[in-house]
Amino acid sequence: MQSTESTDVNSVQPTVAYDSILELAPYQTGKPVEELTREYGVSDVVKLASNENSMGCSPYVTLAITEQLGQLARYPDGNGYYLKQALADFTDVKLECITLGNGSNDLLDILARTFVGTDDAIVYSQYAFVVYSMLAKMQGATGIEVPAQRFGHDLDAMRQAVEDNANTKMVFIANPNNPTGTQLEHAELHEFVASLPSSVLVVLDEAYIEYSPESNNRALLDEFDNVVIVRTFSKAYGLAGLRVGYALSSAPIAGLLNRIRQPFNVSRIGLAAAAAALADQDFIDSVRLTNQEQMRWLEKQFDALGLGFIKSHANFIMVEIDDEDTAAINQALLEQGVIVRPLVNYGLPDWLRITVGVAEDNMRLIDTLRSILTDD
Q1: Greatest CA span in the chain, whole angstroms?
Q2: Angle at Cα 77 formed by Cα 259 and Cα 112, nearest 5°?
Q3: Are the beta carbons of 111 and 258 closer than 8 angstroms?
Q4: Around Cβ 267, how many Cβ atoms within 10 Å?
Q5: CA-based angle 333:309:217, to the nearest 5?
Q6: What is the pLDDT averaged over residues 36-50?
């Protein structure tokens, strides 16, 4: 007899591809200015939480965007030819060795989806960009976090982790590192890559390279086919709102990445803006100089306040709040219109990451922080 019971198809829930996805927490972005205004009614807000460029972007970018406004009904160039050509000239790589992304995060995701499976492992450092561990979970892979050394990458320990895990497919290294600002020397990285099997892909995340050009490891691409360098226009170039990034690699790797990359993953405006931004290296030089000057000023202020910090090679500085309730100090800053980044999700509950702003922003930060610490 046929069963009279029926299945309510609307009650059947989809299941995740990998159980590890259930362990993921949504990525925590810096609190938007608009959200702070809604919550506390603060109109004069200083945002120093997301490592954005407080100087904005090159004036040539505005012109490039304006020229595209009449073409918004047209799809962008899916291959991004003109931006790729500009990047090829700038980085001295071949056109076929470049992959464009919707910001560098998009490229990190493309790399993981292209090369990492459920039986594989990804190695990364403690206190490194939290997205690396998220990518391992997204792929159902094993994430191997190697303890940090003085808040930076311990390359010897990471090498050992690769040796101990035959299924290691990828190693992520941020240089300079986010959120600690530490930096590895070229010789260290060269020795590290040379010591690994060629089957292990080394991804160098150089999102902050413009602030520390001496950490440029472009030369590794000439010697090693298993190195990928990922960069972004979101930081020093000031295009965070447009989401444009790029990867440099061997041609075969780029060919694979471009098979996985979504079509039109960089907008028409993004392509034009990034090309204009890249062409204005005088602006980048001024950004770097201002950042260095303001970084030194902030270090002196933190010393005067008795606050510890980690020497940074990027456009942010990690500051230790010698207080049992760092969250309360962060909250007090928010209530007075200053947004910084707590690092609880990085396992650093006593630290705040603070973007180096322009002089006016930094003075506001220090004055507010001093008043809060004095009240305590």
Answers
A1: 85
A2: 30
A3: no
A4: 17
A5: 115
A6: 82
Q: Which of 60, 31, 50 is nearest to 232 (CA)?
A: 50
SS (H, E, C) the chain: CCCCCCCCHHHCCCCCCCHHHHHCCCCCCCCCHHHHHHHHCCCCCEECCCCCCCCCCCHHHHHHHHHHHHHCCCCCCCCCHHHHHHHHHHHCCCHHHEEEECCHHHHHHHHHHHHCCCCCEEEEECCCCCHHHHHHHHCCCEEEEECCECCECCHHHHHHHHHHCCCEEEEEEECCCCCCCCCCCHHHHHHHHHHCCCCCEEEEECCCHHHCHHHCCCCHHHHCCCEEEEEECCCCCCCCCCCCEEEECCHHHHHHHHHHCCCCCCCHHHHHHHHHHHHCHHHHHHHHHHHHHHHHHHHHHHHHCCCEEECCCCCEEEEECCCCCHHHHHHHHHHCCEECEEEHHHCEEEEEEEECCCHHHHHHHHHHHHHHHHHC
Residue pair 317/25 in contact by the 8 Å Cβ criterion: no
Q: What is the mean pLDDT of the chain?
A: 92
State mean pLDDT over 82-107.
97
Residue-wise pLDDT for 317-358, tens only, equals: 999 997 678 999 999 999 999 999 999 989 999 999 999 999
Q: Give the per-residue pLDDT at 376.
A: 60
**Which one, of 209, 180, 181, 192, lies nearest residue 154 by Cα?**
192
Q: Which residues of 327-345 are buried (b: 16+ CB within 10 A; e: fewer)?
A: eebbebbbebbbbbbbbee
The pLDDT tens digits of the residues spanning 162-221 come to 999 999 999 999 999 999 999 999 999 999 999 999 999 999 999 999 999 887 899 999
* 311 Cα distance to chain centroid: 18
Q: pTM of the full predicted structure?
A: 0.91
CA distance 296 to 276: 30
Residue in the block written with tokens 């980085």: 91
Position 31 scores a pLDDT of 66
Provide mean pLDDT across the span 145-168. Answer: 97
